[in-house]
Amino acid sequence: MSGWGSWLKGDAPAGAAGSAPAASGSNFHAITDTTPQNALFGPLEPTDLEWTCAGGFTTETQTWYSVLDDGSFATSQIIHSAVGLWYPQVQMTFKYFNPKTGKKIWKSVNVTKFAPQTDKRSSKAAEFSVVFSSTDAGDKYSITANLDADLQLSWSFTRPKAIQGWKLGAGPKGGFSYFGSNLGSPEGYVIHRFWPVAESEGHVIAQGAAIDAKGKGMFVHAIQGMRPNLVAAKWNFANFQADDEKLGRVSGVMMEFTTTPDYGSAQDGQPTGKRESLTVNIGSIVAEGKLIAVTAATRTASAADADKSQKSNSRVTHLDKTLDQDTGYNAPQAIEYTWQGPLLDASTGKGDVDQKVEASLKVDLGKPFPSSETHGLVDKVDVLAEIPYMVRKLVNYVAGTKPYIYQTLNEATLKLRLPGKEESQVKGSLFEEHTFISG
Protein backbone atom coordinates (compact mmCIF):
# COMPACT_ATOMS: atom_id res chain seq x y z
CA MET A 1 0.00 0.00 0.00
CA SER A 2 3.05 2.22 -0.16
CA GLY A 3 2.34 3.94 -3.43
CA TRP A 4 -1.18 5.17 -2.98
CA GLY A 5 -0.25 8.67 -1.83
CA SER A 6 0.79 9.47 -5.38
CA TRP A 7 -2.78 10.12 -6.52
CA LEU A 8 -2.59 13.87 -6.43
CA LYS A 9 -4.38 16.72 -8.08
CA GLY A 10 -2.42 18.87 -10.44
CA ASP A 11 -0.24 18.30 -13.45
CA ALA A 12 1.48 15.02 -14.21
CA PRO A 13 3.63 13.62 -17.01
CA ALA A 14 1.89 13.10 -20.33
CA GLY A 15 -0.40 10.10 -20.21
CA ALA A 16 -0.12 9.87 -16.44
CA ALA A 17 -3.09 11.94 -15.40
CA GLY A 18 -5.70 9.25 -15.76
CA SER A 19 -6.87 9.71 -19.34
CA ALA A 20 -6.01 6.97 -21.82
CA PRO A 21 -3.14 7.79 -24.18
CA ALA A 22 -3.90 7.51 -27.87
CA ALA A 23 -3.81 3.88 -28.94
CA SER A 24 -1.16 3.30 -31.58
CA GLY A 25 0.91 0.18 -30.96
CA SER A 26 2.11 -0.74 -27.50
CA ASN A 27 2.70 1.94 -24.89
CA PHE A 28 3.92 -0.55 -22.28
CA HIS A 29 7.28 -2.31 -22.50
CA ALA A 30 7.43 -5.28 -20.12
CA ILE A 31 10.83 -6.47 -18.96
CA THR A 32 9.43 -10.00 -19.32
CA ASP A 33 9.05 -9.45 -23.10
CA THR A 34 12.51 -8.00 -23.67
CA THR A 35 14.58 -10.49 -21.64
CA PRO A 36 15.27 -13.92 -23.21
CA GLN A 37 14.48 -17.01 -21.14
CA ASN A 38 18.15 -17.97 -20.96
CA ALA A 39 19.08 -14.55 -19.52
CA LEU A 40 16.41 -14.01 -16.86
CA PHE A 41 18.84 -13.92 -13.94
CA GLY A 42 20.27 -10.47 -13.30
CA PRO A 43 22.80 -10.34 -10.44
CA LEU A 44 22.27 -7.52 -7.98
CA GLU A 45 24.92 -4.82 -8.12
CA PRO A 46 25.59 -2.59 -5.08
CA THR A 47 23.79 0.28 -6.86
CA ASP A 48 20.62 -1.82 -7.18
CA LEU A 49 20.04 -1.58 -3.42
CA GLU A 50 20.82 2.14 -3.15
CA TRP A 51 18.05 4.56 -2.25
CA THR A 52 17.25 6.77 -5.26
CA CYS A 53 14.80 9.12 -3.46
CA ALA A 54 13.58 10.23 -6.88
CA GLY A 55 11.15 13.10 -7.33
CA GLY A 56 8.10 13.41 -9.52
CA PHE A 57 5.44 10.83 -8.71
CA THR A 58 7.83 8.14 -7.51
CA THR A 59 7.29 5.75 -4.62
CA GLU A 60 10.22 3.69 -3.35
CA THR A 61 10.05 0.97 -0.73
CA GLN A 62 12.32 -1.43 1.10
CA THR A 63 10.45 -4.31 2.73
CA TRP A 64 11.65 -7.13 4.97
CA TYR A 65 9.38 -10.15 5.59
CA SER A 66 9.84 -13.07 7.97
CA VAL A 67 7.89 -16.10 9.13
CA LEU A 68 9.22 -16.58 12.65
CA ASP A 69 10.15 -19.93 14.12
CA ASP A 70 6.97 -20.03 16.23
CA GLY A 71 4.82 -19.66 13.08
CA SER A 72 4.02 -15.96 13.48
CA PHE A 73 4.65 -13.33 10.82
CA ALA A 74 6.48 -10.01 10.97
CA THR A 75 7.40 -7.35 8.43
CA SER A 76 9.10 -3.94 8.38
CA GLN A 77 8.80 -1.46 5.53
CA ILE A 78 10.24 1.96 4.70
CA ILE A 79 8.20 4.00 2.23
CA HIS A 80 9.58 7.09 0.45
CA SER A 81 6.85 8.88 -1.50
CA ALA A 82 7.59 11.89 -3.67
CA VAL A 83 4.07 13.04 -4.32
CA GLY A 84 4.40 16.61 -5.48
CA LEU A 85 4.64 18.07 -1.99
CA TRP A 86 7.37 20.46 -0.87
CA TYR A 87 9.09 17.54 0.80
CA PRO A 88 8.70 13.77 0.50
CA GLN A 89 6.53 11.72 2.80
CA VAL A 90 8.52 8.95 4.51
CA GLN A 91 6.91 6.25 6.63
CA MET A 92 8.11 3.24 8.53
CA THR A 93 5.62 0.48 9.16
CA PHE A 94 5.70 -2.70 11.22
CA LYS A 95 3.22 -5.55 11.27
CA TYR A 96 3.11 -8.68 13.42
CA PHE A 97 0.56 -11.47 13.43
CA ASN A 98 0.48 -14.65 15.51
CA PRO A 99 -2.08 -17.07 14.03
CA LYS A 100 -2.06 -19.26 17.14
CA THR A 101 -2.96 -16.51 19.61
CA GLY A 102 -4.59 -14.01 17.24
CA LYS A 103 -2.26 -11.28 18.50
CA LYS A 104 -1.74 -8.50 15.97
CA ILE A 105 0.51 -5.45 16.02
CA TRP A 106 0.28 -2.71 13.41
CA LYS A 107 2.17 0.56 13.50
CA SER A 108 2.73 3.19 10.83
CA VAL A 109 4.87 6.23 11.67
CA ASN A 110 5.59 9.30 9.56
CA VAL A 111 9.29 9.67 10.21
CA THR A 112 11.43 12.80 10.35
CA LYS A 113 14.96 13.65 9.23
CA PHE A 114 15.14 10.69 6.84
CA ALA A 115 18.38 10.42 4.86
CA PRO A 116 20.30 7.70 3.03
CA GLN A 117 23.75 7.23 4.53
CA THR A 118 27.13 7.37 2.76
CA ASP A 119 26.79 3.95 1.13
CA LYS A 120 23.21 4.83 0.04
CA ARG A 121 22.10 1.32 1.07
CA SER A 122 21.84 2.28 4.72
CA SER A 123 19.36 4.88 5.90
CA LYS A 124 18.54 6.81 9.03
CA ALA A 125 15.75 8.90 10.51
CA ALA A 126 14.98 10.26 13.95
CA GLU A 127 12.86 7.16 14.60
CA PHE A 128 15.04 4.39 13.09
CA SER A 129 18.37 3.24 11.73
CA VAL A 130 18.96 0.67 8.96
CA VAL A 131 22.58 -0.37 8.46
CA PHE A 132 23.73 -2.41 5.47
CA SER A 133 26.88 -4.49 5.93
CA SER A 134 28.74 -7.39 4.36
CA THR A 135 29.71 -10.14 6.80
CA ASP A 136 31.28 -13.58 6.56
CA ALA A 137 27.77 -15.03 6.57
CA GLY A 138 26.53 -12.73 3.79
CA ASP A 139 25.01 -9.31 3.16
CA LYS A 140 23.01 -8.00 6.10
CA TYR A 141 20.47 -5.33 7.06
CA SER A 142 20.39 -4.41 10.76
CA ILE A 143 17.19 -2.56 11.74
CA THR A 144 16.64 -0.68 14.97
CA ALA A 145 13.59 1.48 15.53
CA ASN A 146 11.59 3.16 18.26
CA LEU A 147 8.12 3.39 16.74
CA ASP A 148 6.17 3.99 19.94
CA ALA A 149 6.54 3.92 23.69
CA ASP A 150 5.50 0.25 23.60
CA LEU A 151 7.12 -0.85 20.31
CA GLN A 152 10.86 -1.14 19.67
CA LEU A 153 12.59 -3.14 16.94
CA SER A 154 16.07 -4.62 16.98
CA TRP A 155 16.32 -7.25 14.29
CA SER A 156 18.41 -8.14 11.25
CA PHE A 157 18.14 -9.94 7.92
CA THR A 158 21.10 -11.79 6.43
CA ARG A 159 21.21 -13.12 2.87
CA PRO A 160 23.36 -16.27 2.80
CA LYS A 161 26.31 -15.83 0.43
CA ALA A 162 25.42 -18.96 -1.52
CA ILE A 163 21.89 -17.74 -2.33
CA GLN A 164 22.06 -14.85 -4.78
CA GLY A 165 19.76 -11.88 -4.94
CA TRP A 166 18.27 -11.09 -8.34
CA LYS A 167 16.46 -8.75 -10.68
CA LEU A 168 15.02 -9.74 -14.06
CA GLY A 169 17.80 -9.30 -16.61
CA ALA A 170 21.34 -8.09 -16.07
CA GLY A 171 22.81 -4.60 -16.32
CA PRO A 172 21.66 -1.11 -15.32
CA LYS A 173 18.38 -1.48 -17.23
CA GLY A 174 17.70 -4.94 -15.84
CA GLY A 175 14.33 -5.26 -14.13
CA PHE A 176 12.72 -2.13 -15.58
CA SER A 177 9.29 -2.23 -17.23
CA TYR A 178 8.49 1.09 -18.93
CA PHE A 179 5.20 2.90 -19.53
CA GLY A 180 4.70 5.11 -22.57
CA SER A 181 5.32 4.72 -26.30
CA ASN A 182 8.65 6.59 -26.26
CA LEU A 183 11.33 4.51 -24.54
CA GLY A 184 13.71 7.44 -24.79
CA SER A 185 11.40 9.46 -22.54
CA PRO A 186 9.09 7.04 -20.70
CA GLU A 187 6.07 8.21 -18.74
CA GLY A 188 6.88 5.88 -15.88
CA TYR A 189 8.49 2.63 -14.82
CA VAL A 190 8.37 -0.14 -12.24
CA ILE A 191 11.17 -2.36 -10.90
CA HIS A 192 11.69 -5.00 -8.18
CA ARG A 193 14.95 -6.38 -6.76
CA PHE A 194 14.84 -9.44 -4.49
CA TRP A 195 16.66 -11.35 -1.84
CA PRO A 196 14.60 -14.56 -2.14
CA VAL A 197 16.05 -15.85 1.13
CA ALA A 198 17.15 -13.91 4.22
CA GLU A 199 17.51 -15.29 7.73
CA SER A 200 16.06 -13.00 10.40
CA GLU A 201 17.14 -12.75 14.03
CA GLY A 202 16.93 -10.36 16.95
CA HIS A 203 13.87 -9.29 18.86
CA VAL A 204 10.86 -7.02 18.98
CA ILE A 205 9.73 -5.43 22.24
CA ALA A 206 5.98 -4.93 22.23
CA GLN A 207 4.01 -3.82 25.27
CA GLY A 208 6.92 -4.79 27.48
CA ALA A 209 7.22 -8.35 26.14
CA ALA A 210 10.02 -9.65 23.91
CA ILE A 211 9.26 -11.46 20.65
CA ASP A 212 12.07 -13.65 19.28
CA ALA A 213 12.58 -12.55 15.65
CA LYS A 214 14.46 -15.64 14.48
CA GLY A 215 12.87 -16.84 11.28
CA LYS A 216 12.86 -17.44 7.52
CA GLY A 217 12.63 -14.21 5.59
CA MET A 218 13.16 -12.33 2.34
CA PHE A 219 13.71 -8.75 1.18
CA VAL A 220 12.53 -6.65 -1.77
CA HIS A 221 13.49 -3.17 -2.97
CA ALA A 222 10.77 -1.78 -5.24
CA ILE A 223 10.28 1.48 -7.13
CA GLN A 224 7.16 2.74 -8.89
CA GLY A 225 8.11 5.71 -11.05
CA MET A 226 4.53 6.71 -11.76
CA ARG A 227 1.18 7.20 -10.05
CA PRO A 228 0.26 3.76 -8.68
CA ASN A 229 -3.32 3.88 -9.94
CA LEU A 230 -1.86 3.99 -13.46
CA VAL A 231 0.81 1.32 -12.93
CA ALA A 232 -1.58 -1.56 -12.32
CA ALA A 233 -5.20 -2.57 -11.85
CA LYS A 234 -4.25 -5.51 -9.64
CA TRP A 235 -1.23 -7.14 -7.97
CA ASN A 236 -0.34 -10.57 -6.62
CA PHE A 237 2.59 -11.41 -4.35
CA ALA A 238 3.66 -14.79 -2.95
CA ASN A 239 6.39 -15.49 -0.40
CA PHE A 240 6.81 -19.21 0.37
CA GLN A 241 9.58 -20.21 2.78
CA ALA A 242 10.52 -23.64 4.11
CA ASP A 243 13.23 -25.96 5.41
CA ASP A 244 13.18 -29.41 3.83
CA GLU A 245 15.06 -32.53 4.92
CA LYS A 246 16.21 -33.32 1.38
CA LEU A 247 16.25 -29.94 -0.38
CA GLY A 248 17.39 -27.75 2.51
CA ARG A 249 16.31 -24.11 2.44
CA VAL A 250 13.47 -23.69 -0.07
CA SER A 251 11.90 -20.46 -1.29
CA GLY A 252 9.25 -19.65 -3.87
CA VAL A 253 8.76 -15.93 -4.54
CA MET A 254 6.41 -14.44 -7.13
CA MET A 255 5.28 -10.94 -8.05
CA GLU A 256 2.63 -10.27 -10.68
CA PHE A 257 0.84 -7.14 -11.85
CA THR A 258 -1.77 -6.40 -14.51
CA THR A 259 -1.70 -3.05 -16.27
CA THR A 260 -4.67 -0.72 -16.41
CA PRO A 261 -6.56 -0.38 -19.73
CA ASP A 262 -4.62 2.85 -20.31
CA TYR A 263 -1.46 0.86 -20.93
CA GLY A 264 -1.01 -2.23 -23.08
CA SER A 265 -1.45 -3.37 -26.65
CA ALA A 266 -3.75 -1.56 -29.07
CA GLN A 267 -6.56 -3.83 -30.23
CA ASP A 268 -7.30 -3.99 -33.94
CA GLY A 269 -10.81 -2.91 -34.84
CA GLN A 270 -11.44 -1.36 -31.43
CA PRO A 271 -12.30 2.29 -30.76
CA THR A 272 -9.42 4.73 -30.38
CA GLY A 273 -7.98 4.53 -26.88
CA LYS A 274 -9.03 0.91 -26.36
CA ARG A 275 -6.16 -1.27 -25.20
CA GLU A 276 -5.69 -4.78 -23.92
CA SER A 277 -4.18 -5.05 -20.44
CA LEU A 278 -0.98 -7.02 -20.00
CA THR A 279 0.04 -9.18 -17.04
CA VAL A 280 3.70 -9.32 -15.99
CA ASN A 281 4.82 -12.25 -13.84
CA ILE A 282 8.29 -12.66 -12.32
CA GLY A 283 9.53 -15.09 -9.70
CA SER A 284 12.25 -17.39 -8.43
CA ILE A 285 12.83 -20.79 -6.86
CA VAL A 286 15.53 -21.56 -4.28
CA ALA A 287 16.40 -25.16 -3.35
CA GLU A 288 19.47 -27.24 -2.52
CA GLY A 289 21.14 -24.18 -1.01
CA LYS A 290 21.09 -22.03 -4.14
CA LEU A 291 18.97 -20.00 -6.54
CA ILE A 292 17.96 -22.61 -9.11
CA ALA A 293 15.54 -20.66 -11.33
CA VAL A 294 14.30 -17.19 -12.18
CA THR A 295 10.95 -17.20 -14.00
CA ALA A 296 9.14 -14.68 -16.18
CA ALA A 297 6.07 -14.47 -18.40
CA THR A 298 3.79 -11.87 -20.01
CA ARG A 299 0.14 -12.40 -20.91
CA THR A 300 -2.64 -10.44 -22.54
CA ALA A 301 -5.98 -10.06 -20.79
CA SER A 302 -7.65 -12.26 -23.41
CA ALA A 303 -5.12 -15.11 -23.21
CA ALA A 304 -6.57 -18.50 -22.35
CA ASP A 305 -5.42 -20.07 -19.09
CA ALA A 306 -3.47 -22.71 -21.02
CA ASP A 307 -1.60 -20.18 -23.19
CA LYS A 308 2.10 -19.81 -22.52
CA SER A 309 4.07 -16.62 -23.02
CA GLN A 310 7.81 -16.33 -23.51
CA LYS A 311 7.84 -20.15 -23.34
CA SER A 312 6.87 -20.01 -19.66
CA ASN A 313 3.65 -21.02 -17.94
CA SER A 314 4.35 -18.92 -14.83
CA ARG A 315 1.13 -17.39 -13.54
CA VAL A 316 -1.21 -16.61 -10.66
CA THR A 317 -4.73 -18.02 -10.93
CA HIS A 318 -7.61 -16.85 -8.74
CA LEU A 319 -10.08 -19.68 -8.17
CA ASP A 320 -13.72 -19.86 -7.04
CA LYS A 321 -14.16 -16.09 -6.95
CA THR A 322 -17.07 -14.70 -4.99
CA LEU A 323 -18.31 -11.27 -3.96
CA ASP A 324 -16.75 -9.74 -0.86
CA GLN A 325 -19.37 -7.41 0.58
CA ASP A 326 -16.68 -5.52 2.51
CA THR A 327 -14.83 -4.42 -0.62
CA GLY A 328 -17.16 -4.93 -3.57
CA TYR A 329 -14.58 -7.10 -5.35
CA ASN A 330 -14.94 -10.69 -6.50
CA ALA A 331 -12.18 -12.19 -4.38
CA PRO A 332 -10.74 -15.70 -4.71
CA GLN A 333 -11.49 -18.55 -2.32
CA ALA A 334 -8.28 -20.24 -3.48
CA ILE A 335 -5.16 -19.15 -5.36
CA GLU A 336 -2.78 -21.26 -7.43
CA TYR A 337 0.78 -20.18 -8.24
CA THR A 338 2.79 -21.77 -11.05
CA TRP A 339 6.52 -21.29 -11.64
CA GLN A 340 8.22 -22.52 -14.82
CA GLY A 341 11.69 -21.51 -15.91
CA PRO A 342 15.10 -22.72 -17.08
CA LEU A 343 17.51 -24.33 -14.66
CA LEU A 344 20.04 -21.70 -13.63
CA ASP A 345 23.77 -22.39 -14.04
CA ALA A 346 25.31 -20.51 -11.14
CA SER A 347 28.76 -20.45 -12.78
CA THR A 348 27.56 -18.60 -15.89
CA GLY A 349 24.34 -16.96 -14.70
CA LYS A 350 22.57 -18.40 -17.73
CA GLY A 351 19.43 -20.51 -17.81
CA ASP A 352 19.33 -23.83 -19.66
CA VAL A 353 16.07 -23.63 -21.61
CA ASP A 354 16.16 -27.39 -22.21
CA GLN A 355 16.21 -28.09 -18.46
CA LYS A 356 13.00 -26.81 -16.88
CA VAL A 357 12.34 -26.16 -13.21
CA GLU A 358 8.63 -26.42 -12.43
CA ALA A 359 6.80 -25.65 -9.20
CA SER A 360 3.23 -25.09 -8.11
CA LEU A 361 1.37 -24.21 -4.95
CA LYS A 362 -2.34 -23.98 -4.19
CA VAL A 363 -3.71 -22.32 -1.08
CA ASP A 364 -7.29 -22.56 0.19
CA LEU A 365 -8.38 -19.14 1.46
CA GLY A 366 -11.96 -19.87 2.43
CA LYS A 367 -14.61 -17.20 2.00
CA PRO A 368 -13.57 -13.54 1.68
CA PHE A 369 -16.73 -12.47 3.52
CA PRO A 370 -17.23 -12.43 6.37
CA SER A 371 -13.57 -12.01 7.33
CA SER A 372 -13.96 -14.62 10.07
CA GLU A 373 -14.36 -17.21 7.30
CA THR A 374 -11.07 -16.31 5.57
CA HIS A 375 -8.31 -18.81 6.29
CA GLY A 376 -5.16 -17.26 7.72
CA LEU A 377 -6.33 -13.67 7.24
CA VAL A 378 -3.66 -11.27 8.46
CA ASP A 379 -5.37 -8.13 7.24
CA LYS A 380 -7.83 -6.71 4.74
CA VAL A 381 -6.51 -3.21 4.13
CA ASP A 382 -8.60 -0.30 2.92
CA VAL A 383 -5.68 1.59 1.36
CA LEU A 384 -7.34 4.99 1.24
CA ALA A 385 -7.86 4.81 4.99
CA GLU A 386 -4.17 4.09 5.63
CA ILE A 387 -2.29 6.71 3.63
CA PRO A 388 -0.74 9.61 5.60
CA TYR A 389 -2.98 12.51 6.57
CA MET A 390 -0.99 15.15 4.68
CA VAL A 391 -1.12 13.02 1.56
CA ARG A 392 -4.77 12.11 2.00
CA LYS A 393 -5.70 15.80 2.05
CA LEU A 394 -4.38 16.11 -1.49
CA VAL A 395 -5.66 12.83 -2.90
CA ASN A 396 -7.75 12.98 -6.04
CA TYR A 397 -10.19 10.11 -5.61
CA VAL A 398 -10.14 8.64 -9.09
CA ALA A 399 -13.58 7.45 -10.12
CA GLY A 400 -13.98 3.68 -9.87
CA THR A 401 -10.76 3.21 -7.93
CA LYS A 402 -10.88 1.75 -4.43
CA PRO A 403 -7.72 -0.18 -3.56
CA TYR A 404 -7.88 -3.08 -1.11
CA ILE A 405 -5.07 -5.42 -0.08
CA TYR A 406 -5.82 -8.91 1.19
CA GLN A 407 -2.99 -10.44 3.25
CA THR A 408 -2.99 -14.06 4.41
CA LEU A 409 -0.57 -16.45 6.13
CA ASN A 410 -1.11 -20.19 5.77
CA GLU A 411 0.73 -23.47 5.85
CA ALA A 412 1.19 -24.70 2.29
CA THR A 413 2.87 -27.37 0.20
CA LEU A 414 5.09 -26.49 -2.74
CA LYS A 415 5.25 -29.14 -5.45
CA LEU A 416 8.71 -28.90 -6.98
CA ARG A 417 10.13 -30.79 -9.93
CA LEU A 418 13.80 -30.45 -10.83
CA PRO A 419 15.15 -31.72 -14.16
CA GLY A 420 15.70 -35.48 -14.10
CA LYS A 421 14.29 -35.88 -10.59
CA GLU A 422 10.99 -36.99 -9.09
CA GLU A 423 8.56 -34.40 -7.79
CA SER A 424 9.19 -33.21 -4.23
CA GLN A 425 6.48 -31.92 -1.91
CA VAL A 426 7.85 -29.29 0.42
CA LYS A 427 5.82 -28.16 3.44
CA GLY A 428 6.27 -24.56 4.55
CA SER A 429 4.60 -21.20 5.14
CA LEU A 430 3.03 -18.92 2.55
CA PHE A 431 2.48 -15.22 3.07
CA GLU A 432 0.55 -13.77 0.15
CA GLU A 433 -1.07 -10.52 -0.93
CA HIS A 434 -3.71 -10.09 -3.59
CA THR A 435 -4.52 -6.48 -4.30
CA PHE A 436 -7.40 -4.95 -6.22
CA ILE A 437 -7.11 -1.34 -7.33
CA SER A 438 -9.78 -0.89 -9.99
CA GLY A 439 -12.19 -2.87 -12.09
UniProtKB/TrEMBL annotation:
Transmembrane segments: none annotated. It is found in: Cytoplasm. This is Oxidative stress survival, Svf1-like protein. Residues 226-438 form the Svf1-like C-terminal domain. It comes from the Eukaryota. The keyword Cytoplasm applies. It comes from Kalmanozyma brasiliensis (strain GHG001). One of its GO terms (cellular component) is cytoplasm. GO terms for biological process: response to oxidative stress. Keywords: Cytoplasm. Residues 302-327 are annotated as: Disordered. Belongs to the SVF1 family. Residues 59-224 form the Svf1-like N-terminal domain. It holds the Pfam family Svf1.
